[in-house]
Specification:
Blueprint lengths: L1 H18 L3 H4 L5 E8 L6 H20 L7 E8 L4 H12 L4 E5 L4 H14 L2 E4 L14 E3 L4 H15 L5 E7 L2 H17 L2 E8 L7 H9 L4 E5 L2 H13 L5 E4 L6 H7 L7 E4 L8 H14 L5 H20 L6 H13 L8 E3 L2 E3 L12 E6 L2 E4 L9
Parallel strand pairs: 1-2, 1-3, 3-4, 4-5, 6-7, 6-8, 8-9, 9-10
Antiparallel strand pairs: 10-13, 11-12, 13-14
């Protein structure tokens, strides 16, 4: 009887063990995948961060409502770098060492992206910036991409637009933010000015913490430029434009994409009327899909989306697409991060490109992309699409 009982017990144990899956089979797919979004969510340029966050949230919500990424929920982790390069380094370290985060959308400021770039490189995690335009942002890293043009292109574009469209303007004063973005854009503009026959009669730097620009504006006024080009962000640009009006400057003003925020209009007031600025995208000239996203965005948040919401929406879409096509449940974190990088690195032609609401995005060997610039005009206190556009990418 005892031998019979032992035999039955052995058979039962073997049967139970035989029904157990192997370690590999036991690994079920996670319920969610996590992507970081890094940007200035507090601080003096938080208006940019608000739009970045909302654009990213909307795209993630739409992805999840459509079934997620291969059935997994897309979870965004918002990381605040405050627009400060030192803080960005801490944020990048926190993101890169998080064992759940697969990729990064960010940063916005060029200085912040440049600070985070070597950290992402060392830890093997992709960062896709929807806002950093400095020429060095993607160079020298296998893990850095962006879905926006570079400042050498933007600077030359502004000079070309002034020459070809605002034909009576021949002399220019540059007023630039003394950081990676402001200096890089100034340099690009100077190259363009020489190429298209504009004379730069003044070049004045300012610190981002400055609030009084009247002395420098008076100095610029003495050079009698036909146009003032502001190479900086909306916070200071709004003050510069309003103070220029106060000191009696009625010169044509042209801003870059760092001015493209509704907060600029609040700060500059009526003095902004008639000002031009570049932007990477405008919903007015977008596709039907873009226009529908604008409707969905305003319905959700009560305000219309701007350029940065659109680019962040597309950046989240690109990362989600890469995860969907490469994610392996039995792969390590490092393997899945690298698969995302390898997938993006192969998007090198229009045929392979990602079509988002801001148009077609594909990358060169550095992770840069070729996209057109648009021009806005402040009219009746609002940003409007300028009547003349130059949508070539050369």
């Amino acid at each position: 009887m005892r031998n019979w009982f032992i035999g039955v017990l052995i058979v039962a144990v073997v049967s139970v063990l035989g029904c157990q899956p192997s370690n590999k089979d036991a690994r079920t797919a996670p319920s969610e995948v996590k992507v970081a979004v890094a940007g200035p969510f507090t601080g003096n340029i938080a208006a940019f961060g608000d739009m970045i966050k909302r654009g990213a949230e909307l795209k993630a919500e739409q992805i999840n409502n459509a079934g997620g990424i291969s059935g997994m929920k897309l979870v965004l982790s918002f990381e605040d770098d405050t627009g400060n390069d030192r803080e960005a380094g801490l944020v990048a370290t926190r993101i890169a060492t998080d064992r759940q985060i697969l990729a990064v959308v960010g940063h916005f400021n060029s200085s912040c992206t440049l600070s985070g770039k070597p950290i992402y490189q060392r830890n093997g995690i992709v960062a896709l910036s929807p806002g950093s335009t400095n020429v060095k942002v993607a160079e020298g890293s296998d893990w850095m991409f962006r879905n926006i043009y570079r400042d050498d292109f933007q600077g030359e574009f502004v000079a070309k637009y002034i020459k070809n469209t605002l034909k009576d303007l021949k002399t220019v004063a540059i007023f630039f933010d003394n950081d990676d973005y402001g200096r890089g854009l100034r340099d690009g503009f100077i190259v363009g000015a020489e190429k298209y026959g504009l004379e730069v009669v003044a070049s004045e730097a300012y610190d981002r913490n400055s609030t009084d620009f009247k002395a420098q504006l008076t100095s610029i006024q003495g050079k009698k430029p036909d146009v003032i080009f502001i190479s900086g962000l909306y916070t200071q640009a709004g003050l510069i434009v309003s103070q220029a009006d106060e000191v009696g400057i009625n010169t044509q003003i042209f801003g870059a994409d760092g001015v493209d925020s509704p907060e600029f209009l609040n700060k500059a007031g009526k003095a902004a009327e008639g000002m031009y600025l570049t932007t990477p995208f405008t919903f007015d000239l977008g596709s039907e899909d873009a226009k529908q996203v604008a409707v969905d965005f305003e319905s959700k948040y009560g305000v219309p989306p701007d350029t940065w919401a659109a680019l962040s929406y597309d950046a989240v879409g690109m990362i989600a697409d890469a995860i969907e096509k490469t994610y392996k449940n039995d792969g390590s974190l490092a393997d899945n991060r690298k698969a995302i990088r390898d997938y993006l690195a192969l998007i090198t032609t229009p045929a392979k490109g990602y079509t988002g609401i801001t148009g077609l995005t594909y990358f060169d060997k550095n992770g840069d992309c070729v996209k057109p610039a648009y021009v806005k005009l402040v009219k009746d206190g609002k940003f409007t699409t300028a009547p003349v556009q130059m949508l070539d990418t050369n």
